Amino acid sequence: YLDLRDNRLGPKLEIESHTNPWPTLGQLLLGGNTISSLILKLPDNLAVLDISRNKFQRVPEFIQFASFLHSLDLSNNHLSNLPVFLGFLDKLQRISLDGNPLRSVRHELLVA
Questions:
Q1: Torsion, Cα of 76, 55, 96, 38 (10° steps)
Q2: How far apart are the C-alpha atoms of 39 and 32, rounded to whole Å?
Q3: Given this model, what pLDDT does residue 17 score?
C-alpha cells in the first residue's frame, strides 16, 4: 500500500504515466491533504482508495474505471451530489460519505 495521508498535497495532484507505475498497488491513502483535483492512472488491483478530508467538489472521474475497488472513502470533502457511475462499480462494498453537504442520493445510483 501507499500512504500519503496528511502531507499537505494539493490542490491539484497528478499521478499519471503511460505505463502503470504501481501494477500491484492494492491500497492508496490520500486522506487529510488539500486535494481538489486528482488525475490518476489506476493501478490494476486497487481495492482501497481513501481520499477523505480533502477539498473535492466532485467525485474524480477516474473512479468509474476502478473495477476492483471495494472500499472508497470520500468523507469530509465538499461533495453535494454523486455520479451514477458509483452504482456500477460491481466490487464496491463500502463507501464513506459522511461530512459532505449531500442533500439526497439519486434513485439511479441506488438501483444501478
A1: -160
A2: 17
A3: 64
